[in-house]
Amino acid sequence: MAGVRILVGTKKGAFVITSDGARRDWKIEGPYFGGWEVIHVQGSPADPDRLYASQWTDWHGQVMQRSDDGGKSWEAVGNEFAYEGTTGTHQWYDGTPHPWEFKRVWHLKPSQDDPDTVFAGVEDAALFCSRDGGHTWTELAGLRTHSTGQDWMPGAGGMCLHTILIDPANSQRMYVAISAAGAFRSDDAGATWHVATKGLSSTSLPEPEAPIGHCVHKLAMHPSRPDTVFMQKHWDICRTDDAGESWTEVSGNVPSDFGFPIVVHAHEPETIYVVPILSDAEHYPPEGKLRVFRSRSGGNEWEALTKGLPQHDCYVNVLRDAMAVDSLESCGIYFGTTGGQVYASADAGDTWEVIAQYLPRVSSVEVQTLP
Amino acid sequence: MTTVRVALSSPLRTLARIDGEVELEVADSPTVTTVLDALESRYPMLRGTIRDYGTDQRRAFIRFFACGRDLSHEPLDTPLPGPVSAGTDPLLVVGAIAGG
What we know:
The complex is a heterodimer.
Chain A: E1 3-10, E2 13-20, E3 27-32, E4 37-43, E5 51-57, E6 61-67, E7 75-77, E8 89-91, E9 97-99, E10 104-110, E11 118-123, E12 126-130, E13 138-139, E14 160-166, E15 174-179, E16 182-186, E17 194-195, E18 216-221, E19 229-233, E20 237-240, E21 248-249, E22 258-264, E23 272-277, E24 292-295, E25 303-305, E26 323-325, E27 333-336, E28 342-345, E29 353-356, E30 362-370
Antiparallel strand pairs in A: 1-2, 1-30, 2-3, 4-5, 5-6, 6-7, 8-9, 10-11, 11-12, 12-13, 14-15, 15-16, 16-17, 18-19, 19-20, 20-21, 22-23, 23-24, 24-25, 26-27, 27-28, 28-29
Chain B: E1 2-8, H1 10-16, E2 22-26, H2 32-42, E3 62-66, E4 69-70, H3 82-85, E5 91-95
Parallel strand pairs in B: 1-5
Antiparallel strand pairs in B: 1-2, 3-4, 3-5
């Protein structure tokens, strides 16, 4: 019987939550790497037993872990992320030049068809790739050395490359997003990049429609429509239907268009989900109600999904990598909160249940649909 | 050669899957550098977690103590105190107190 494996990264370790396809009974295993922040855990589409995890602390820096048995056991692999060539500067928060410094790995994107190939988005923003199962990492320096790189600046969480999307039909085409630089597209497997922010507007910038400086929080794509990409920005929910050549705002009737995650239904390319929070300073849901908003029209028209979610006195946040979908017939939606809860919906968001209630602050949630 | 004892912080012991102290064979007149070289050779997963790649400098939140002394700010090629070289006292690799 099919099942799901949820990979949860938290402030103090990783957890693996499993269920069969009914998604009624859940088993929590962990913590793995207890005491370490686990920023992201991701499985290989080519081999579901191959997992990668980004583990980090201020004290000891970056550690990368790999599992070959679906998370039962782990092996520390390579953790040297050396920028290629001479590193220049980017902008600091106050606009002064600041040297590029590696801090940590925010996001992992395993290849669609090779379990040993995995991309890593890092802070300070750059894209790395391992082709030997995580033992060694090489920078795809065309991104960091883009002509606009000196103008990139960090968002509140740091200057992180937090999203990597790969066109499933054309692995030469990739998208990345960086806070607070913007979105970029490559058509040559990451060798060269161009800015993909036309149509975005950010009032926090001196020039709201400038090509660089947009604080993109997350991108999402349905595999059947790789030219359509959805974006949750610092403010605004947007979409592009021409592979990032132009963006249109589709915030519509959400109570706040500030938020972090955005995901697409596994079987309905125009059904998308966001979790609005009040503002850039108030990282909690409007009115103390934890609501997922679903649009079945690719944006603009949104409905609140509340059944099973706390509707009073709730002041948690859902971070950018902490929401995911499974691909079972009735699409499952999952998200984790900064309060340590993991919620699951087995009916595309109509109803929710809490499947883990007392974890550390959740950094990331990914889901594997198992045969 | 001499045997040096090293006591690692809890997160490093967890990472390296070590219980208790580590005993390392190093050349006579050991220094922090030669001890860390031997430590990382035996436990490669510790590379980059105590000192930075490239510069080999101590990470900002790591301290080195031995024999009641703070060695964190001494040159890394300074000979370690006699009791550490003799294996009677450990070199402590400690995480800075930066939590709440």
